[in-house]
Design goal:
five-stranded parallel sheet, 130 residues, globular, single chain, 5 strands, alpha/beta, Rossmann fold
Length: 130
């Protein structure tokens, strides 16, 4: 069963993304409210996909992507950005730093689940990356 890390400071978004992904396959979901918490989760869990917002307190999604890509054991971890239409510069920076895809807010659950499924299908399990 794949593990998906949802990183968003909104508990509502965390719940909605969890529910959407749960409809398409059996997954284990872990959550974090910001990039700092997410780095701890990645360090302590086998994570197969990170879905992250851009704007969060303490450490934003851009910093999170950069830090994840620096870690040898997480360098190939698929990352999906959730971003608003007006955040083109941040979205471009996130992709440049190594995010694999993005979906725009307001979220289309079809786009979110399709992107997540594609990334999970191509993901190398954490255990094999070490």
């Amino acid at each position: 069963m794949p593990t998906v890390l949802i990183v968003d400071d909104s508990k509502t978004i965390q719940m909605l993304v969890t529910n959407a992904l749960g409809r398409i396959r059996d997954i284990r979901v872990v959550t974090a409210a910001n990039g700092r918490e997410a780095l701890d989760v990645v360090a302590k869990n086998d994570v197969d996909l990170v879905i992250t917002d851009i704007n969060m307190p303490e450490m934003d999604g851009i910093q999170l992507i950069s830090e994840v890509r620096k870690k040898r054991d997480a360098a190939c971890l698929p990352i999906l950005i959730i971003t608003a239409k007006g955040e083109e510069q941040a979205r471009t920076e996130g992709l440049r730093l190594g995010a694999n895809a993005y979906v725009l807010k307001p979220l289309s659950w079809h786009e979110l689940t399709t992107a997540a499924e594609k990334l999970l299908a191509g993901a190398v399990p954490e255990k094999q990356r070490r």
